[in-house]
């Protein structure tokens, strides 16, 4: 017969399975000498068990039920115990060493006089009868509240780990950080980028996340290289200089709708040059975005230079509807990144971590709803990627989502649905500038002369059968010529 699984194995598989077997009476009550190493568990029912001499090494336990449990001579070392119930437990000879007790209840526990609490950080612990006061606040330079900017950079900046003594460096590297799904993508990205070491060049594609900057860029004259150089210059609080030749190339790429149109638009934005052409590259940019979102991958990346170009050219038509999909992918990527950062992977009890934090459950709900199998499959795919590739997905999705949300706030008619025939929107070899979008009732009040000249509508009158039409007002920046173009819902 196969050997029955031990309590250690059952808890590693998750508290839900353990509680089900316990309720069915399929597990023994005596587990003397059980050893748990780096166990992350929540809501497990261990009440009334015999755990004499058990060892708990660097475990993170939340809402565990130890009521009336025999924990005599047990050894808890490192980790954290949060909201755990020790009421009525036998703690004779038990040792709690170098760990944190948060909101735990020891009311009525036996053998407390013989229990040893050594270097224990207690916060709102009840039932110990004169429990230790919380430790005094650390000096501001090491604390988390009274920072000056210089102190924060010294303690939390990229060089902080390198400045530690060697023994402290090893301890910091060996200690897994806590599970923080509530942190925003920028915080997760910054911590992961520090662990990565030298920042890769692609971090310059996500300036909105304020990344650590590469020391130097490889030489080159491509629009991508020039764009990244301009971003680096701006993030160093200097003004990027426009290269006349590069500006001409970028304007030409936009007019022709070339494959590097996204880089062209982003380069012009960084050097402060207004694009001469907004609509010529619209189809290429939207097709590129659509192609990335058609990939069946829960954490599939979206190039922020594409979404940034759509924002710079103010092209929300058939783009804003993709915002939900990008937000969904970012939620999954953010959750998986937080899990991997805290040491969880698809092969261990990652679901315990998921259940322990409301922020994690919210991310999972946004990403995939109630389908835990799809969530696991997405996690397996994401965890198999190299660390830099995972980080790039997180950063790109966060930056792209910011662009799409801004696109959604643009006024109606910013991009007319008509995109055919450049003669309808060009003057002096450049696209006419968008002025405003008007409804039929606005024409007599705002542009009566233009409505008469362009559409033949008598001044002071509203065009007939045009209640649902949108009238787009354009102007040439060179000669001042104006146009009024009708956009109907049927078009």
Query: What is the number of strand segments?
Result: 13
Q: What is the count of helical runs?
A: 17
Shape: elongated
SSE pattern: HHEEEEEEEEHHHHHHHHHHHHHEEEHHEE
Question: What are the segments in which pLDDT stays under 50 over at least 5 consecutive residues?
Answer: 130-153, 164-173, 418-423
Mean pLDDT: 83
Work out the strand percent: 5-15%
Broad structural category: alpha/beta
Q: Fraction of residues in helices?
A: 25-40%
The first-to-last residue Cα distance is 73 Å
SSE diagram, text form:
Blueprint: H1 7-12, H2 15-23, E1 35-37, E2 40-42, E3 55-62, E4 75-82, E5 95-97, E6 100-102, E7 116-118, E8 121-123, H3 149-156, H4 166-174, H5 185-196, H6 223-235, H7 244-256, H8 261-270, H9 282-293, H10 304-312, H11 323-341, H12 350-356, H13 358-368, H14 372-383, H15 387-407, E9 426-427, E10 430-431, E11 433-438, H16 443-446, H17 448-455, E12 470-475, E13 482-487
Parallel strand pairs: 1-3, 2-3, 3-4, 4-5, 4-6, 5-7, 6-8
Antiparallel strand pairs: 9-10, 11-12, 12-13
Describe the structure.
- This protein is an alpha/beta fold and 491 residues long.
- It folds into four domains: 7-123, Pectate Lyase C-like (3 Solenoid), CATH 2.160.20.80; 197-321, no CATH class; 324-407, no CATH class; 423-487, no CATH class.
- The protein contains 17 helices and 13 strands.
- It has helices at residues 7-12, 15-23, 149-156, 166-174, 185-196, 223-235, 244-256, 261-270, 282-293, 304-312, 323-341, 350-356, 358-368, 372-383, 387-407, 443-446, 448-455, and strands at residues 35-37, 40-42, 55-62, 75-82, 95-97, 100-102, 116-118, 121-123, 426-427, 430-431, 433-438, 470-475, 482-487.
- Strands 1, 2, 3, 4, 5, 6, 7 and 8 form an eight-stranded parallel β-sheet that branches. A three-stranded antiparallel β-sheet has the order 11-12-13. Strands 9-10 form a two-stranded antiparallel sheet.
- The chain is elongated.
- It starts with 6 loop residues before the first helix and ends with a strand.
């Amino acid at each position: 017969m196969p050997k029955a699984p031990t309590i250690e194995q059952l808890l590693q598989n998750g508290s839900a399975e353990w509680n089900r077997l316990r309720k069915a009476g399929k597990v023994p009550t005596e587990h003397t000498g059980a050893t748990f190493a780096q166990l992350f568990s929540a809501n497990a029912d261990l009440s009334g068990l015999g755990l004499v001499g058990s060892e708990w090494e660097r475990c993170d336990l939340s809402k565990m039920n130890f009521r009336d449990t025999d924990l005599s001579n047990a050894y808890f070392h490192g980790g954290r115990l949060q909201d755990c119930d020790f009421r009525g437990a036998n703690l004779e000879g038990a040792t709690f060493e170098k760990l944190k007790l948060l909101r735990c209840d020891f009311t009525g526990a036996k053998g407390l006089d013989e229990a040893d609490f050594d270097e224990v950080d207690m916060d709102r612990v009840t039932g110990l009868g004169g429990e230790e006061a919380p430790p005094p606040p650390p000096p501001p330079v090491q604390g988390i509240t009274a920072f000056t900017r210089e102190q924060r950079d010294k303690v939390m900046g990229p060089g902080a780990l390198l400045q530690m003594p060697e023994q402290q460096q090893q301890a910091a590297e060996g200690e897994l950080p806590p599970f923080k799904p509530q942190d925003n993508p920028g915080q997760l990205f910054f911590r992961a980028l520090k662990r990565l070491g030298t920042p890769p060049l692609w971090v310059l594609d996500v300036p909105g996340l304020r990344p650590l900057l590469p020391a130097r860029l490889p030489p080159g004259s491509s629009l991508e290289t020039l764009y990244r150089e301009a971003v680096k210059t701006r993030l160093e609080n200097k003004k990027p200089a426009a290269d006349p030749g590069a500006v001409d190339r970028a304007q030409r790429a936009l007019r022709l709708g070339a494959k590097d149109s996204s880089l062209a638009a982003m380069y012009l934005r960084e050097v402060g040059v207004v694009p001469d052409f907004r609509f010529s590259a619209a189809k290429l940019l939207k097709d590129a975005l659509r192609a990335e979102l058609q990939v069946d991958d829960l954490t599939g990346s979206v190039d922020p230079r594409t979404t940034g170009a759509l924002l710079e050219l103010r092209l929300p038509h058939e783009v804003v509807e993709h915002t939900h999909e990008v937000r969904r992918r970012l939620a999954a990527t953010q959750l998986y990144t937080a899990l991997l950062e805290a040491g969880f992977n698809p092969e261990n009890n990652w679901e315990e971590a998921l259940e322990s934090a409301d922020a994690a459950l919210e991310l999972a709900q946004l990403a995939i709803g109630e389908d835990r199998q799809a969530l696991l499959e997405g996690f397996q795919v994401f965890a198999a990627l190299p660390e830099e590739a995972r980080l790039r997905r997180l950063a790109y999705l966060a930056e792209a989502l910011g662009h799409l949300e801004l696109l959604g706030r643009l006024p109606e008619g910013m991009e007319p649905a008509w995109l055919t025939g450049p003669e309808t929107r060009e003057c002096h070899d450049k696209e006419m500038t968008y002025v405003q979008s008007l409804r039929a009732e606005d024409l007599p009040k705002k542009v009566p002369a233009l409505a008469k000249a362009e559409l033949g509508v008598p001044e002071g009158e509203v065009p007939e059968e045009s209640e649902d039409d949108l009238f787009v007002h354009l102007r040439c920046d060179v000669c001042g010529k104006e146009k009024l173009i009708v956009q109907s819902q049927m078009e």
